[in-house]
Amino acid sequence: MTESIALLTIFVLAAFVGVEVISKVSSTLHTPLMSGANAIHGVILVGAIIVTGAADSAIVVIVGLLAVVLATVNMVGGFVVTDRMLEMFKGPGARKKELHK
Amino acid sequence: MIPTWAQIGYLVAAVCFIVALKALSSPRSARTGNLIGAAGAVLAVIITFAAYKPDHLVPILIALAIGTVGGVIGSRRVQMTQMPQLVALFNGVGGGAAALVALLELGDVPSEATVAAIATAFTILVGAISFSGSVVTFAKLQELMTTRPVTFPGLPVLFVASLLGGIALAVWLVSDPRVWVGVLLCLIGLAIGVMLVLPVGGADVPIVISLLNAFTGLTVAAGGYVLGNTLLLVAGTLVGAAGTLLTKLMADAMGRSVFNILFGAVRGGSTLGAGTASDRPVISGGPEDVAILLGYANKVIIVPGYGLAVAQAQHTLRDLVEELQSRGVKVDYAIHPVAGRMPGHMNVLLAEAQVPYEQLREMDDINGDFKTTDVVLVVGANDVVNPAARNTPSAPIYGMPILNADEAQRVIFLKRSMRPGFAGIENELLYDPRTTLLFGDARDSLTKLLTALKTV
Asked: A–B: how many Cβ contacts below 8 A?
């Protein structure tokens, strides 16, 4: 039972950290926030690898591999597209520099 | 049991995710933050391979490679206007993956671990809802299906029945963890997801993306509980918090409750509009007239809407603004929270056109400035400047915070036609004697304006 209490504690504390951190995100960046948060939940990949790796029947392996593919698309795609968006956010200095090139 | 070093590694990865979100407080640090987040994710995957020593290593690595290629191609090819669809799609596959993981874990949940069984049932049900809901959202945004709310008689009854059925199955699963009950639960979740999103109109879909994002986050957190994996628990909870907060922010910006947005069409009180063109007289002008108004103003505010992005006119707009600035006109962009198709979407679209983010000002910040503004230029927007939101209690958008464009000396609308906006409501501001309309495609009109501006 102590383990489930520990996990519950982590859950509650993480929720507070999440709300605290995210309420400080600039509204300019709400779209990258959504896609970045999206990429983070792609970490379910870890779970997909664990269950696939422990599988002992063909059907479980196949379903597990499907989960691995889906989670990887979520994680990799999410981080790449967030990077693509954030790359475009430049201050006035950056724009001038580019014009002078 | 997971070795201690791996637990510590997971902790590092979790901290990386928190840092990534924290860095988004400023555009300056955001990109580095995202890379730290990605590094945390890679670390987590490597630790998982090292600590769990999974069987079927080669097929797993092949699956990883396939997913990586798919993810990179998808995210490289997507246009910035299509960003909401992509986020919906990535969210859906994440939710789907979580549901599958929980389904496979079902056999290993010990019968006395009630909390773990509840978490498993939750993950299967909500993961499936998130998956099918996101797929329908994607289809709506990509216009593979109608963007209008879809309802049919009996939908509310069927929806509530499915929901109750889902809960009943979940309870059954908790008391008796059998795989076929799990599969049934998964199927009913898929049906609920479809029924949840079908009645939501195109303009409200962004809220659904955000909500489903929160769902997937919580699903991953519950999955983390089942597997006893703290990283999944922390990461999922963070995302759940982000999605919930964004959903609330967006609903506030539309002046409506989340419940009303989701179920408004079912109850008949939605943003369904007539969508017909009006024949009341308006004042329309040519590019030269408008160029004179803009060129001799002291202060101009631009109100960009999704129509700007559809016409791919962001770059032309930036050129026009730079021309005005070189003439000594003070120009700001006023960004409504729901401009575009998801929160902050307009900022991304203008950043793509290399508009410095300092020029983009939020609604609360700029609304006091309209009184002292000579000209407001509305490009491809309508509902966000519709005074009906303030003055007409019967209007569907009544109560939605708007940009006070009607307080400026002159208003210019660049419009394709007289058809009302997304919400389908007449905009009184269009018929105001201080308003000039310039009809045509946004990019054409802006190009003509730019040419005319250089001669006046």
From this structure: 364
Does B383 qualify as catalytic in the annotation?
A: yes
CA distance B373 to B402: 16
Q: Do A66 and B362 touch (CB under 8 A)?
A: no
Cα–Cα separations (whole angstroms), residue B322 to B27, B311, B317, B327, B349: 22, 19, 9, 9, 17
**Measured between beta carbons, which residues in chain A are less than 8 angstroms from residue B227?**
47, 50-51
Given an 8 Å threshold on Cβ–Cβ distance, is B27 in contact with A89?
yes
CA atoms within 13 A on the CB side of B27: 23
Query: What are the pLDDT digits (tens) for B164-183?
Result: 999 999 999 988 888 899 99
In a 3-state reduction of DSSP, which class is residue B230?
helix
What is the C-alpha to C-alpha distance for residues A85 and A69, in angstroms, rounded to an integer?
24
> What is the pLDDT, as a whole number, of residue A92?
60
The answer to whether residue A91 neighbours chain B at the CB level (below 8 Å) is yes
CA nearest to A30, candidates B217, B82, B206: B206
pTM: 0.87
Report which DSSP code applies to B299: E
Question: How is chain A split into domains, by residue range?
Answer: 33-101
- From the list A30, A50, A90, the residue facing B48 with the nearest CB is A50
Cα-Cα-Cα-Cα dihedral sign, residues B149, B154, B158, B160:
positive
Chain B contact probe: residue of A73, A90, A96 with most B CBs at under 10 A: A73
Mean of all residue pLDDT scores within chain B: 88
Which one of B204, B332, B383, B406 is the catalytic residue? B383
Contact A31 B45 (CB under 8 A): no
3 state SS of B326: helix
Q: Which two tokens stand for residue B193?
A: 């997801």
A7 touches chain B (CB under 8 A): yes
Query: In sequence order, what DSSP letters do the residues of B391-450 get, joined into one string?
Result: H-TTSTTTT-----GGGSSEEEEEESSS---TT----GGGGSTTEEEEES-HHHHHHHHH
Reported ipTM: 0.91
- Residue found under tokens 């969508």: B275
pLDDT at B420 over 70: no
